[in-house]
Fold:
Amino acid sequence: MRIALPAVLLTALLVFPGVLPNTPGHLGSLVETALPWFGLGIPLLLAAAAVRRSLKGLAFALVPTVAWAALFGPGLVSLPQPSPGRTDFQVLTLNVGGDRTAPRDVARDILAADADVVALEKVPNGAMKTYEQELHAIYPHRATGDTLGLWSRYPLHGVEKLDLGGAWPHAVRAVARTPVGDTAVYAVRLPSVRVTVREGFAVRRRDASAARLAERVARDPARRVVVLGDLNGSLRDRGLAPLTHRLRPAGGGSGHGPGFTWPAAFPVVRLDHVLLRGLTPTGTTVLPDLGSDHRPVLTGLRSFR
Structure:
């Protein structure tokens, strides 16, 4: 029982995190955000079984091991992938905040990534003009609002700054004339979350903004929609369910590793995402640290035919 019960509970947590209540302190959301790291309990179970020389204990310890491997293992290995076919265009999202960010250096690295549409979030007040100047030659079309910006090789129209609650616009929307036709693109930064003694996992503002964004996306007349940005949460977090129920994640692919994006120097969670409607991802890569406190996400897209 000393191994069996913890093993069963850990397996249940990994497979069914949604059964956890979200009170007090949005505990369920916090667990869902940190879910991959609960795998650290598995070596402890295996070690306990080895110390006790218990085959039965080992068998129980292998149950959460298999569950964790099925959920998160594919992101840790690089396996040959079938050819995704054509890629019609590529999108990139990057939160460029943080004390280490040097706008000209980041802009150079963005250009090297060769995306067709770029969303930048949390652009410092004094850096917006620098990004505009550095990116203009390749991305002559842009739409900005407060600390958000979209840069595009393709013409943009229908630009909107979206009020999702809070003191500043949390999203900018524009329609890009991509090779597959008009595509609504959103650059998004949802409100930050914190862990505090008083509130626990303080996600109320983020959850409210996510719900308002989901409502706006639901009303969007565009056949093709791309949401790019820092959602300040894992897509497993139930607080982002209004968005993930309406839009398809571009996938957990990361090139190599689990696909975490924050903090950039040693990522432990994925906060930066690409969500889709009417488009198919052909591959997603989390790029190396560019000097921000987040890592960029590059995704290839193609249309349904």
About this structure: Residues 19 and 273 are 25 Å apart (CA to CA). The helical segments are 4-15, 27-33, 41-52, 55-72, 103-113, 128-135, 204-219, 241-244.
